[in-house]
Design a protein that fits this description.
The complex is a heterotrimer. By secondary structure, chain A is mostly helical. Chain A contains twelve helices and two strands, in the order αββααααααααααα. By secondary structure, chain B is α/β, with parallel strands linked by helices. In chain B, the strands form four sheets. Chain B has a five-stranded mixed β-sheet with strand order 2-1-3-12-6. A four-stranded mixed β-sheet of chain B has the order 8-9-7-10. In chain B, strands 4-5 form a two-stranded antiparallel sheet.
Chain lengths: 292, 421, 272
């Protein structure tokens, strides 16, 4: 419920005035550059000489662009295999945190550590850990498995990045889930207890419905953040081996700065942006509260 | 739209320039961007101070960033019309920059010569050829390199060989691999030899280019079409790169990951032989510095040796407002060939660099000087980065077991589509 | 009752296992920072190495990391201030005001969350250059300072403030700015902690933008300093790990200081 009757021009004017600084900022430093990217995507532009208008040439070429298609597949693989486990793990850990009372601050602090480490440090540590003679393979050997060429085989490198992302992202979404759990009114559970509901029934009929908005938020955030990932792929594998981990942001980066093909890079940017937008809208629509 | 932007830029810039001019009379500050290499920084800063002592009105401001990052930043600055006065340009990028008119033609008078031929005479044969685009000399080498084989003599000693005796050096690639298998430790804590892995396309190219030329393989044929999947090329890769992997003597799993230093394993004594340039020893650990020996690059046909040439250039940007002063400093800097070699391990490519006392004291200088005579530059192309990536991908493919021919077919298809774009 | 016990047992084991997996790489990083390159892959995680704090000392001898640290702290702090101020204002506007432009404004905010920096970095650089901001602190900090997620968090927090409070103040004749200051602000302070931690962390990780926009060694931020250090000759992993640990300390300390308020803030802001 909002201040519906408040149609006084003065108040609405204040509302606009409060939003304007943020909007100016966004338009200046985000909206204008992305519109500029749209503009460049219609040109051949190598950064060094003047752009030449070519219409939708770069968009028409996408269907036969092997690097682009492979990168799109890699990006979807990465996001799909990252967010599922991350959602489950962060949900489960947050639930476990609600079950402990006194020790919660300690667990929570320790479990949040991955999110406060600099991303460069995280990437370097995992790069060394996945090294062939590194600690992960040592553990595998200890358990009686063969060591795996994590970062040098196309079959394993995408998984290495997915695994380290589980580790890194779980801590972040755990906090959001925990906040969601803690804001469920206690009387819901008390009512369920009086009705004699079992643990699973409570989960199915009380917790999940109450958590629906939080789950939606985490789903959208993790998808958007996954599609925007860059640093891990750049630092750990630089897109290799044989482009097996060349996620879309990295392809955009290389196409602009190594291949000096800004027209094509901007086209990729536009497609990525539209993709993120469409997927987010779809998720928001799927997760909408149907009782509204 | 871009025009408008540059109008805004130049407005702001000229206002800034006016203020600067008003406050500091005729003082000139040259900006100089270089890739990160601590010994070079030390040397250039020292020379800059000497230069300023001679020309009090000219100061030099040096900035460096790591490779990769360096190029990203330089391109952004060039795009904004805000390039530094002096830049450091990597070999394969030179045509990319030169063709697009962002580098200024060398000011002959700053080097005290009257003609291009006289400038070339200051340098070794071919030293300026990689820096000449459409008949114009657009830069001078900071490094003019070739490659050789570095050997850890302590490791040779363990298998009963004296690496100081040229007779023990591997002459052919097969010699190299059979030595490598003797030097390798069963638990792989040491390998005999390895190619570079997990680095940028040019690192790979430096290692395969001599092999390709030895086998008569061309990346691109005379008509501009990809030839990297020709029989000669398939043979070249199958008999060299692939052999090492198939025999489990080397390969990406046996290399320690390092994003920048290809020689980490040799440098720390985990690898007995490595292909590298004269610039490499400063990268070595102290233990390996004491033990390395330089041998010529192995050959397909030792009677007809072929190696790589590589030129890391210094150039002045076309947009610089102080070209004359910038070239004066470049001339001053690169004339100190001995200083460069002693401090940084760079060979400036000046005529007679190998005959000085400093060069004679540098291990392997004679072998490098000889190697320079048999070298050639990697293929020149404005889309080199993308083409090089296609070949790098092919190598990483066959390292995972894809047949060499199939991997190279893909690279050829990629290169053709890049060139048709 | 047994079910309850079972739940607690399950929760404890899950937390213990998750904490172990979370801390293992951190422990590995700490121990690697005390080792020489040769020891990193040959000794176990719990072996403390032979270098002591030698890696830290030699890394600091090579690069002015404290200056990089100050730059990073400055950039992250300004970023936090801008995000909190603009975020509270915009969040208040979206939560409690109705005007015709609101849906359009909201769409702009939604869109901006979805733009990856890599996609806009060149246009942004050209723009900032036109402002004459290259190689200045303004150029380094301002263009990427605003973390739009702040608007979402503040909006959620402000929605849960009863309208009656605001209306009562209005009827008393309080000006809109006074309402913001005396009614809204005190109630969103816990959320401000959440926004501050997330934004500080985001700014701390900024890499591509500072790289492109600065060209003065003393203006580098910590991540750039770490990269430049890594590219020096004879890279020693132990030193790289030492620098990584150092880079993690400020954000870790910042979070530890605020962590008591952090989850409370997240709950209060009704991130749900």
């Amino acid at each position: 419920m909002r201040i519906g009757f408040n149609a006084r021009l003065g108040v609405a004017g204040w509302g606009i005035a409060f939003a304007v600084p943020a909007l100016v900022y966004i338009m200046l430093f985000q909206l204008y550059p992305i519109l500029f990217s749209f503009y460049i995507s219609l040109h051949d532009y190598d950064l060094l000489s003047d752009p030449v208008f070519v219409g939708f040439k770069h968009f028409a070429n996408l269907a036969s662009d092997r690097a682009f298609l492979a990168s799109a597949r890699i990006t979807i693989f990465y996001v799909a295999y990252t967010i599922g486990p991350v959602l489950l793990l962060s949900f489960a850990i947050a639930w476990a945190l609600t079950r402990v009372q006194l020790s919660r601050p300690y667990w929570q602090t320790l479990l949040f550590i991955p999110s406060v480490l600099p991303i460069v440090s995280v990437a370097l540590v995992w790069k060394l850990m996945f090294n062939f003679p590194g600690p992960i393979n040592a553990t595998l050997r200890g358990l009686g498995f063969d060591p795996l060429p994590w970062l040098t085989y196309g079959a394993y490198a995408p998984w290495a990045l997915v695994i380290m992302s589980w580790w890194h992202a779980t801590s972040y979404y755990m906090i959001i889930f925990l906040a969601g759990f803690l804001s469920i009114p206690k009387d819901y559970y008390e009512a369920a207890a009086i009705d004699g509901a079992s643990g699973l029934q409570v989960l199915r009929f009380v917790t999940l419905p109450a958590m629906r908005p939080t789950i939606a938020l985490v789903l959208v955030l993790s998808t958007v953040n996954g599609l925007k990932t860059f640093a891990f792929q750049q630092i750990v594998t630089d897109g290799g081996p044989a482009s097996a981990t060349q996620i879309m942001t990295l392809l955009i980066y290389k196409t602009s700065f190594s291949y000096l093909d800004m027209g094509r890079a901007s086209t990729y940017s536009v497609v990525l942006f539209i993709g993120i937008f469409a997927i987010s809208l779809l998720q928001i629509w799927l997760m909408r509260d149907r009782h509204d | 739209m871009l025009k408008i932007r540059s109008a805004i830029c130049s407005g702001v810039l000229s206002a800034a320039a006016l203020i600067a001019a008003a406050s500091t009379a005729f003082a000139v500050e040259l900006t100089f961007w270089h890739h990160t290499y601590p010994p070079a920084r030390t040397f250039i800063e020292k020379k800059a101070a000497e230069f300023t002592a001679q020309h009090p009105d000219i100061t030099i401001r040096l900035h460096d960033d790591p490779h990769g990052d360096y190029e990203v930043k330089l391109l952004s600055a060039i795009a904004a019309g805000n390039a530094p006065d002096i830049v450091n340009v990597l070999d394969y990028l030179f045509p990319q920059y030169g063709k697009r008119g962002i580098l200024a033609e060398v000011d002959l008078s700053a080097f005290g010569v009257k003609s291009a031929a006289a400038l070339e005479a200051l340098y070794q044969p071919k030293a300026l050829s990689g820096l000449t685009i459409d008949g114009k000399i657009l830069g001078v080498p900071e490094e003019f390199n070739t490659l050789a084989l570095f050997i850890n003599k302590a490791h040779f000693k363990e298998i009963g060989l004296d690496a100081t005796d040229p007779a023990t050096w591997p002459k052919s690639w097969n010699d190299l691999f059979s030595l490598a298998s003797k030097l390798q430790k069963p638990d792989n804590s040491r390998v005999g030899f390895n190619w570079v892995w997990n680095l940028d396309p040019y690192w790979y190219a430096q290692q395969y280019w001599p092999i390709l030329t030895q086998y008569g393989c061309e990346v691109v044929d005379a008509s501009g079409k990809a030839a990297i999947n020709s029989d000669a090329c398939v043979k070249a890769f199958s008999e060299t790169w692939k052999v090492l992997i198939d025999k489990k003597l080397g390969g990406p799993e046996l290399a320690t990951v390092n994003p920048v230093n290809a020689l980490q394993d040799f440098s720390e004594g985990r690898q007995s032989m490595a292909i590298a340039g004269i610039w490499a020893p400063p990268l070595y650990s102290d233990a390996v510095k004491a033990e390395y020996v330089v041998a010529p690059l192995p050959q397909f046909d030792p009677a007809n040796p072929k190696t790589l040439l590589n030129s890391y250039a210094l150039a002045v940007t076309a947009g610089s407002k102080h070209k004359k002063e910038a070239f004066q400093f470049l001339s001053f800097l690169t004339t100190d060939s001995d200083g460069y070699l002693a401090t940084t391990g760079y060979v400036t490519g000046r005529t007679g660099w190998a005959d000085t006392k400093v060069a004679k004291e540098t291990r392997g200088s004679a072998i490098f000087a000889e190697g320079q005579k048999h070298g050639s530059f990697v293929w020149r192309s404005p889309t080199w980065s993308e083409e090089g990536t296609a070949i790098k991908n092919a190598i990483e493919q066959f390292a995972q077991g894809v047949p060499v021919k199939q991997a190279l077919d893909q690279a050829a298809a990629d290169i053709n589509s890049i060139r048709q774009r | 009752m047994t079910e309850r016990l079972f739940h607690r047992l399950a929760a404890w084991s899950l937390l213990a296992f998750a904490t172990f997996l979370t801390l293992y790489p951190v422990a590995w990083m700490l121990s690697a920072s005390l080792k020489s390159s040769g020891e990193i892959f040959t000794t176990s995680t719990f072996h403390l190495g032979s270098r002591g704090f030698g890696n830290y000392l030699s890394a600091f001898g090579e690069r002015p990391f404290f200056i990089y640290l100050l730059n990073s702290v400055a950039a992250a702090s300004v970023s936090v201030i801008i995000t909190v101020v603009l975020g509270v204002l915009a969040g208040y506007s979206f939560a409690k005001f109705r005007y015709r432009l609101a849906p359009l404004f909201w769409l702009v905010v939604l869109i901006s969350v979805m733009i990856p920096l890599e996609a806009i970095v060149i246009p942004l650089f050209l723009e900032v250059h036109a402002f004459g901001w290259t190689n200045t602190y303004a150029g380094l900090i301002l263009p990427t300072a605003f973390n739009v997620v702040g608007i979402f968090i503040f909006r959620q927090a402000i929605i849960s403030i009863p309208d009656a409070y605001i209306e009562a103040a209005r009827i008393d004749g309080a000006s809109e700015l006074k309402i913001l200051r005396l009614v809204v602000l005190p109630m969103v302070l816990p959320s401000a902690v959440v926004v501050a931690v997330l934004t500080f962390n985001l700014a701390w990780n900024s890499y591509l933008w500072p790289l492109i926009v600065t060209s003065d060694d003393l203006m580098r931020t910590l991540p750039l300093g770490m990269a430049a250090f890594q590219a020096g000759f004879d890279t020693k992993y132990g030193e790289v790990m030492a620098v990584s640990v150092f880079g993690a300390l400020p954000t870790a300390v910042f979070f530890l200081m605020l962590q008591r308020y952090f989850v409370e803030g997240a709950v209060a802001s009704g991130v749900k």
